[in-house]
């Protein structure tokens, strides 16, 4: 596999990398932006609550996000939201580009994060509030992109309510894409934390999977970790793999990336081979984050008696494993 040209089939297998939305950056600076959006009957609102999104009721065989007219939500002001609306965060997402959905191309979309009371009042049926991990593979490209974008920016708002310099409460601006400290008069922008995730293959063409200390002991995935300051993606991949498994790898080959808004990561996927000079070195899990590491052959993963559970189909980890495997692996999802 390593050394072959990157195929678009890998990129298309990343559910959270799909999008059909123009983020419409210039429109974010419109004075009284949300007043303007709420005055337009064509605006549509996607609603979120505690990291969950509201599903529509007219799904035809696959999940669809609910996009509501502004009148069904309440008033939103330029600095945030009115208390009566029960909205915690308002974000202008951009314009829809999809041609296979109900809303016409160019429809402006807003994400609202509701309080508990407002969410229950809007939709008391909790089965309609869904987790991105569970529904991402079945969503349209537009809805997958909307859910991923909205969840990432809402999570950022929830963790940046106060200024890191002075502790003053910050206020949202630019359609929810900036927070300003009124004391320091500084802008605080959304952040994304880069992380690497690596498919490691040995001389027998087996793949290395590890079991995290926070998981049940038969759950396995690729080794991954955050990029440290002053470190390249490739250097982070080499370091993280060695720290977590004792395995030394050669130059990692970049495959693709996927946003992972849980809460704010960008997963950068690599494939790498074990350094032949250390191919006989023992596997040494770090014992803190990773409790077990094992080599798996394709036959191992195809064996119905194998009990290892693999990452879900919404993750880049699953996509890299199946890229190495040469096709889909039935079942075994978390």
Mean pLDDT: 91
State the total count of DSSP E strands: 16
Q: Enumerate how many helices there are, as a single number.
A: 8
Largest sheet: 7 strands, mixed
| Radius of gyration from the alpha-carbon trace, in angstroms | 22 Å
* CA-CA gap between termini: 26 Å
How much helicity do the residues have? 10-25%
Q: What is the helix/strand order?
A: HEHEEEEEHEHHEEEEEEHEEEHH
What's the overall geometry? globular
Secondary-structure-derived class: alpha+beta
Extract low-pLDDT stretches: 1-7, 78-84
Percent in strands: 25-35%
Summarize the structure.
It contains eight helices and 16 strands.
Main attributes of the structure:
single chain; 334 residues; alpha+beta; 7-stranded mixed β-sheet; 4-stranded mixed β-sheet; 16 strands; 26% strand; disordered N terminus
Structure description:
By secondary structure, the chain is α+β, with helices and mostly antiparallel strands. It has 8 helices and 16 strands. Strands 1, 2, 3, 4, 5, 6 and 7 form a 7-stranded mixed beta sheet that branches. The radius of gyration is 22 Å and the shape is globular.
Q: SSE layout and pairings?
A:
Layout: H1 8-12, E1 21-22, H2 33-39, E2 44-49, E3 52-54, E4 67-68, E5 87-96, E6 108-114, H3 116-122, E7 129-131, H4 132-135, H5 141-159, E8 171-173, E9 178-181, E10 186-188, E11 193-201, E12 207-212, E13 223-226, H6 233-245, E14 253-260, E15 265-273, E16 290-296, H7 298-302, H8 316-325
Parallel strand pairs: 2-6, 11-15
Antiparallel strand pairs: 1-5, 2-3, 2-4, 3-7, 5-6, 8-9, 9-10, 11-13, 12-16, 14-15
């Amino acid at each position: 596999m390593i050394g072959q040209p990157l195929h678009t089939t890998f990129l298309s297998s990343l559910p959270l990398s799909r999008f059909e939305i123009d983020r419409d950056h210039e429109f974010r600076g419109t004075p009284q932006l949300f007043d303007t959006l709420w005055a337009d009957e064509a605006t549509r609102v996607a609603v979120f609550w505690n990291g969950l999104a509201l599903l529509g009721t007219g799904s035809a065989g696959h999940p669809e996000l609910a996009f509501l007219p502004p009148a069904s939500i309440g008033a939103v002001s330029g600095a945030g939201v009115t208390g009566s609306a029960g909205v915690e965060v308002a974000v202008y997402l951009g314009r829809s580009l999809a041609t296979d959905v109900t809303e016409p191309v160019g429809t402006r979309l807003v994400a609202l994060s509701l309080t508990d009371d407002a969410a229950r009042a809007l939709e008391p049926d909790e089965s309609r509030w869904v987790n991105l991990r569970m529904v991402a593979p079945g969503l349209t490209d537009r809805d997958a992109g909307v859910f991923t974008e909205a969840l990432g920016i809402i999570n950022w708002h929830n963790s940046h309510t106060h200024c890191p310099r002075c502790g003053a409460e910050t206020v949202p601006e630019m359609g929810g894409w900036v927070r300003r400290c009124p004391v320091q008069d500084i802008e605080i922008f959304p952040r994304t934390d880069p992380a690497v995730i690596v498919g490691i293959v040995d001389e027998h063409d087996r793949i290395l999977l590890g079991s995290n200390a926070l998981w049940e002991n038969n759950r396995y995935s690729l080794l991954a970790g955050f990029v440290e300051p002053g470190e390249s993606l490739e250097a982070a991949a080499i370091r993280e793999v060695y720290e977590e498994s004792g395995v030394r790898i050669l130059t990692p080959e970049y495959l693709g990336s996927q946003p992972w808004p849980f809460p704010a990561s960008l997963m950068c996927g690599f494939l790498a081979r074990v350094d032949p000079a250390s191919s006989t070195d023992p596997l040494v899990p770090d014992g803190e984050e990773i409790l077990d590491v094992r080599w798996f052959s394709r036959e191992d993963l195809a064996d119905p008696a194998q009990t290892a559970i693999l990452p879900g189909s919404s993750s880049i980890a699953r996509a890299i494993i199946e890229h190495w495997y040469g096709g889909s692996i039935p079942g075994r999802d978390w």
